[in-house]
Structures are given as C-alpha cells and as structure tokens.
Amino acid sequence: MDRLDDEDIGVIWARHYPKRTERESSMSLCVTLTMIIKQRAKSADQYDPAKLDQVLALAHVPREQFETVENESAAQRT
Questions:
Q1: Tens digits of per-residue pLDDT, 6-60?
Q2: Which one in 34, 45, 58, 71 has a CA-CA gap of 20 to 30 Å to 17?
Q3: pTM for the structure as a whole
Q4: CA-CA distance, 10 to 57, in Å (whole number)?
C-alpha cells in the first residue's frame, strides 16, 4: 500500500470532516487520519506535541478539527 502524502490527507480531511456527524464512513475515515497523523508525529517511538503541529500544518488539517475528532471518537468508545 502506498503512503498517503500530506497533501492527500488534507484533501481527504477537508472532504470528510464536515460530513463526520452525518456519515459513519466519514467519521471512520477522519479517525483513521488522526491515527496516521499521530503516528507521523512520533519521534523515536515517543509522541511529540511540537511535531504534531508540524504534521498538521503540512497536511492542512486545523488543530481544533483534529482535537474535535479525537474527542468525538473517544466519546464513542465509552
């Protein structure tokens, strides 16, 4: 499987983030993208909040939207 480019992540995010509350598939895709972004924000197997901001900027994903999806997905698991 090919790795998603940062630009691709941003395009997919922009298309599906607004639909996440109406379509389960869009929410699942956004949650998957948050996991990919968090993985890219790791340095030597440790999560780096400063690197997260860099990865989000490269992918053109607003931090508040990223945090919203993380909070919504956590609420669904509980």
A1: 999 999 999 999 999 999 999 999 999 999 999 988 876 777 788 999 999 999 9
A2: 45
A3: 0.84
A4: 9
pLDDT at res. 44: 63
58 Cβ partners below 8 Å, 6+ apart?
6
Alpha carbon distances (Å) from 52 to 15, 21, 42, 48, 55: 21, 24, 8, 6, 5
Q: Is the pLDDT of residue 78 over 60?
A: yes
- Burial per residue of 5-14, b for 16 or more beta-carbon CB atoms within 10 angstroms, e otherwise: ebeebbebbe
Q: CB under 8 Å to 28, separation ≥6 — which residues?
A: none
The packing angle between helices 6-16 and 24-40, to 10°, is 150
* Angle, vertex CA 59, rays to CA 26 and CA 4, nearest 5: 70
